[in-house]
């Protein structure tokens, strides 16, 4: 079996990281797998850069010039939209030509056009498309929740798009892109992969994908890289001794979707506990974002080194997520792999990771009283670390995920 994964990068962003993990998982399972990217930063020999980056950049600029014009030449939200009108001729690439199955990941920003995907399918290739956001089920946006829009659910879908800052009309760029996707899905037997049950439910509520063929397979996770027992001391990391750590982090923790104000509200409701401290990792665009937090806390800052991040988890007792929605929140899986009790809102993909009161605590959506109660329970009666780690191994380990993708490819 010969497989090629197509993703914009091998390291930039969450979709790139998990696509590279899938590549490694398939190769460990003795699948002849390679990965095509526009931007290569790893030294993995199975990752192949598709050519000079300027070629994809030219396609990206051409696509966004179309969006810019449709937006009334307004730069607002320009880079939150993708239309897949321009891309690279990857049907000519040797790895695509020899492949039995083509696994698409995040292929926007000038990498693949919808027309090119149809050309690849016309070569007789099995097409499996793993969805890392909502773009497959909407017209042009990647996260409909960011603009509180549900027009992707209607039939026909989209139109009057809030990302297009000009007098709204039904047949705008979002509607025409929705129609192009509808034609592609009708012509090509794409097997989609949702990475969580929450994402599948969103697909089923969308007019584009309610009847699509969709399997639910989570992202592969390198459990073996994480340990319950830390290697470094707290002093070496600059963490306080003798306190339980509540850990919360992201690339940028004050991104609105991460719900930092809700976390602050819940932590403040814990009261005056002297046995615990909140540790935040990640960038802060707003330097005063934590000013309202009365609970003892440390802002660790951005963590670029994976080994340091693993040590933070190993020293922590609880991993907290207050996100309004997450397709499959990685920090909760990372925390479980290191034996941390996860506490989160029951709002989206968290339910694929946490079984309430068995492998963590799921608070009622956006109820900070309940979130605070979950934190108190996790601090006072933590779940057995080995039980949490076993949960990750069973659900998300690389061998388990590779096996499910191989089965899916063979079904095609």
Plain-language structure description:
This protein has 412 residues and is α/β, with parallel strands linked by helices. The chain has helices at 14-28, 53-70, 94-98, 114-122, 173-187, 197-204, 234-237, 260-268, 306-315, 330-337, 368-380, 385-396, 398-411; strands at residues 2-6, 32-37, 47-49, 101-104, 126-131, 191-194, 213-216, 244-252, 276-283, 297-301, 318-321, 341-345, 361-363.
Q: What fraction of residues sit in β-strands?
A: 15-25%
Structural class: alpha/beta
Number of DSSP E strands: 13
Helix content: 25-40%
Described by strand count, sense and barrel closure, the largest sheet is: 7 strands, parallel
Overall pLDDT: 94
How much is the radius of gyration in Å? 22 Å
SSE diagram, text form:
Elements: E1 2-6, H1 14-28, E2 32-37, E3 47-49, H2 53-70, H3 94-98, E4 101-104, H4 114-122, E5 126-131, H5 173-187, E6 191-194, H6 197-204, E7 213-216, H7 234-237, E8 244-252, H8 260-268, E9 276-283, E10 297-301, H9 306-315, E11 318-321, H10 330-337, E12 341-345, E13 361-363, H11 368-380, H12 385-396, H13 398-411
Parallel strand pairs: 1-2, 1-4, 2-3, 4-5, 5-6, 6-7, 8-9, 8-11, 9-10, 11-12, 12-13
């Amino acid at each position: 079996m010969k497989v090629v994964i197509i993703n914009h990068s091998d390291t930039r962003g969450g979709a790139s990281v998990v696509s590279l993990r899938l590549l490694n998982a398939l190769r460990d399972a003795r699948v002849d797998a390679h990965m095509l990217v526009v931007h290569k930063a790893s030294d993995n020999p199975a990752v192949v850069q598709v050519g000079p980056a300027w070629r994809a950049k030219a396609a990206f600029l051409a696509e966004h010039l179309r969006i810019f014009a449709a937006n009334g030449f307004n730069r607002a939200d320009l880079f939150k939209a993708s239309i897949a009108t321009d891309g690279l001729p990857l049907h000519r690439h040797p790895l695509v030509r020899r492949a039995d199955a083509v696994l698409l990941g995040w292929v926007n920003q000038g990498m693949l056009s919808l027309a090119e995907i149809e050309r690849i399918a016309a070569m007789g290739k099995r097409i499996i498309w793993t969805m890392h956001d909502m773009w497959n089920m909407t017209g042009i946006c990647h996260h409909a929740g960011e603009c509180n829009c549900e027009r992707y659910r209607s039939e026909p879908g989209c139109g009057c798009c809030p990302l297009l800052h000009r007098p709204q009309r039904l047949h705008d760029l979002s509607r025409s892109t929705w129609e192009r996707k509808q034609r592609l899905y009708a012509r090509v037997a794409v097997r989609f992969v949702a990475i969580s049950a929450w994402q599948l439910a969103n697909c089923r509520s969308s007019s584009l994908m309610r009847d699509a063929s969709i399997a639910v397979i989570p992202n592969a996770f390198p459990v073996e890289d994480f340990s319950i027992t830390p290697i470094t001391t707290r002093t070496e990391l600059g963490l306080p001794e003798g306190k339980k750590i509540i850990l919360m982090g992201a690339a940028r923790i004050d991104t609105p979707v991460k719900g930092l104000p809700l976390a602050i509200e819940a932590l403040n409701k814990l009261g005056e506990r002297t046995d615990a401290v909140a540790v935040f990792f990640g960038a802060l665009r707003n330097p005063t974002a934590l000013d309202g937090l009365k609970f003892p806390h440390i802002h660790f800052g951005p963590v670029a080194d994976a080994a340091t991040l693993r040590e933070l988890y190993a020293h922590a007792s609880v991993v907290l997520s207050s996100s309004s929605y997450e397709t499959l929140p990685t920090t909760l899986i990372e925390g479980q792999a290191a034996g941390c009790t996860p506490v989160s809102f029951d709002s989206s993909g968290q339910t694929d990771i946490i079984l309430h009161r068995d492998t963590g605590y799921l608070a009622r959506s956006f109820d900070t009283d309940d979130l605070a109660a979950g934190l108190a329970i996790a601090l006072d009666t933590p779940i057995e670390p080995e039980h949490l780690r076993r949960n990750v191994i069973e659900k998300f380990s690389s061998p388990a995920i590779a096996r499910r993708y191989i089965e899916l490819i063979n079904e095609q």
